[in-house]
Amino acid sequence: MDEMRTKYGTQILRTPPDVLIGFLKAWDEIAKEESAKNPYFKKVLDSQREYAAKVVPPSASCSRRIPSRPTTTGPRRQPPR
Question: What is the pLDDT of residue 17?
């Protein structure tokens, strides 16, 4: 991340909680609708949620629905090859 900041001018910002909560609520609705239409989608989503329940510590559980990691914004340039 240091290289992204210094070399490309990327700023590290936190997503505002109200924006994040809105995004997550919208995703829950989309996932619910898609799960009702697509059994394979539901199977994969259920599997992912089961896995997350095992590996995500309780203090960081989805019940809070706010991640501790910041999001990145800034120029969308590819690094030189």
Answer: 93
